[in-house]
Amino acid sequence: MIYRAWFQCASGCEERHDLNEIVYECSRCGGLLEVRHDIDALRTKSPVYWRQLFGRRYMGTEWPYGSSVWGKKEMVCPNVENDNVVSMFEGGSNLFWADRLGREIGVEDLWVKQCGNSHTGSFKDLGMTVLVSMVRQMIHEGRPIPAVACASTGDTSAALAAYGAAAGIRTIVFLPRNKVSTAQLVQPMANGALVVSLDTDFDGCMRIVREVCHRENIYLANSMNSLRVEGQKTISAELVQQFDWEVPDWIVIPGGNLGNVSALGKGLLEMHEMGLIDRLPRIAVAQSANANPLYRSYLQGFDRFEPMQAQRTLASAIQIGNPVSAQKAVRVLKAFNGVVEQATEDELADAVARADRTGLFCCPHTGVAFAALFKLVGRGVVRGKDRVVVISTAHGLKFTEFKIAYHEDRLRDLGVEPRRVNRPLELPPRYDLVRDRVFQALEGKG
Fold first, then answer.
1. Cα-Cα-Cα-Cα dihedral of 386, 238, 114, 117, to 10°?
2. Fewer CB atoms near the end CB (10 Å): N or C, the chain?
């Protein structure tokens, strides 16, 4: 069986392009393109066949199918030849059973999909393997592509630089100056990317990179390029696969540029069409209150969407006021009876500290998702009997400055009241003094 995929206008114009064309928007209406698959061809095989095939490949060593992305190649990107796949066997991230935190908030079946347990420490690897593989395929076919570029608040740049380095393809990353963590900045530097630090925010970087790619034939790697969505959608497939193909009641995901929720919904809808799942979950998108255009639109019933000037937030990767995938995200939320919630800086910081105290080690963006979940549970939108999965988008080790600042009480300027501070006991090396202070602390007296 030959499986096919192509670009098609997401706004309904029906304009089509091959995946090896350098195109990002519909020439008729200017809307974003998305990857469409021949679902009828995929449906010629039974759901049992696909479940068994995906299960047999999962986390194995057969190239490239041991990757949890390329293990589902037929429904992700069948156009790339196996020899041109650029993979680090991404995916396969664990589901953390957040039993203690769930009991604290009144949710009996709470899970965290640890997408940050990946090669570069974020879920962006899942999309970048597809995009860079397609670029390698195009170069193999003779297309002159001098480099691949992205605007980033950190994680996208790390993924692009790593996969570009593995493929031997030059990469350029545009970062907002002084708005990414040191760990996020050093990753593309270490992998040899050309790092351009601009005195602007993410939206400003995005404007520059789009112009550079349009004028200079450099390939654009941001989420408006829907090849990335195809990799990111495998979060949904992997998640239900880990639950033996049972669908959770709720999935909570942080939203910035909104490619993640678009990908999540796309994967679930396609699996439903293929018969791999028999129902759809509800989706909750969590935004920082300082960068919340989707939340504002949700409060108005999605009647209109107005970009905003994003303000500083500890969740720097979602400090985006003009998300390129807004239209796709709204469409997904309507299809999934979804909701949108926001979190203040104090709420997200406290949610991180609270989750960390139960064994997690959260990034601030996952903190936004937890803070939103706490609110939804408090209002009874999410019920105690529901199975809930929170998507953790990046590893907490990328944001140690944020965690240190919290525990040193240096976030007051953002309105953060650190209720769960945990500082080292600094003592002289005297047994009696150490013993007394340790037991005072254990008894809550010091």
1. 170
2. N
Helix (H, G, I), strand (E, B) or coil at 81: coil
Residues 125 and 115 sit within 8 Å (Cβ to Cβ): no
- The pLDDT assigned to 386 comes to 98
Amino acid, res. 375: K
Taking the C-alpha atoms of residue 284 and residue 254, their distance in angstroms, rounded to an integer, is 8
Supply the DSSP string of 405-442, one letter for each residue. Answer: HHHTT--GGGT---TT--------S-HHHHHHHHHHHH
pLDDT value of residue 11: 83
**What is the rounded CA–CA span in Å between residue 440 and residue 225?**
56
Q: Of the CATH numbers 3.90.230.10, 3.90.25.10, 3.30.70.20, 3.40.50.1100, which one belongs to the domain with range 95-121+228-414?
A: 3.40.50.1100
Q: Phi, psi at residue 213, to the nearest 5°?
A: -65, -40
> Can you give the pLDDT at residue 142?
96
Using alpha carbons only, give the angle 278, 99, 364 rounded to the nearest 5 degrees.
Answer: 90
- Confidence (pTM): 0.94
Identify the CA nearest to 325 among candidates 36, 122, 76, 33. Answer: 33
Q: How far apart are CA 118 and CA 404, in angstroms?
A: 23
**In angstroms, rounded to a whole number, what is the distance separating the alpha carbons of residues 130 and 243?**
25
**List of long-range contacts for 116-120, beta carbons under 8 Å, 24+ apart:** 116/363, 116/366, 116/392, 116/393, 116/394, 116/395, 116/396, 116/398, 117/93, 117/395, 118/90, 118/91, 118/93, 118/395, 119/88, 119/90, 119/162, 120/155, 120/158, 120/159, 120/162, 120/187
Query: Please, are residues 34 and 5 in contact by the beta-carbon 8 Å criterion?
Result: no
Q: Quick one: DSSP state of residue 329? A: H
Looking at the DSSP bridge assignments, the partners of residue 194 are: 172
Which residues of the chain, if any, have pLDDT below 70?
Answer: 445-446
In 86-226, where does DSSP find H-type helix? 99-105, 124-140, 155-167, 182-190, 202-216
Helix (H, G, I), strand (E, B) or coil at 169: coil
Q: Give, for 293, the enclosing helix (H) or strand (E).
A: helix 293-299
For residue 114, give every residue at least 6 positions away whose Cβ sits within 8 Å of its Cβ, in sequence order, or none: 93, 94, 95, 96, 392
Overall residue count recorded for the chain in this entry: 446
Helix (H) or strand (E) holding 238: helix 234-242
